[in-house]
Specification:
By secondary structure, this protein is α/β, with parallel strands linked by helices. Helices cover 42% and strands 25% of the residues. Strand 1, helix 1 and strand 2 form a beta-alpha-beta unit.
């Protein structure tokens, strides 16, 4: 079974690079990506990822605050900042 990963980063180039790296692993798959905290939380609720790779510097709300909100809604996900 592959780990399902959600990427939350406001830089498209970083998201694309991480997607290539992660999808190249046999036991990991990117299931979604978001460019801001609100979209990231909504995607996590919809997709139920195993892992969320979170940028610490996001527009509006920082990655730590977004991670707290996300984990309240998706406690089974794990966040890597």
């Amino acid at each position: 079974m592959s780990a399902r990963v959600l990427l939350v980063d406001d830089h498209p180039l970083m998201r694309d690079g991480l997607r290539l790296l992660i999808d190249g692993q046999p036991d990991m798959k990117v299931v979604g990506a978001a460019g801001d905290g609100d979209t990231g939380v909504a995607a996590a609720i919809e997709l139920s990822p195993d892992v969320v790779m979170m940028d610490i510097e996001l527009p509006g709300e920082n990655g730590i605050a977004v991670s707290r909100r996300l984990l309240e809604r998706c406690p089974s996900s794990r966040v890597i900042i």
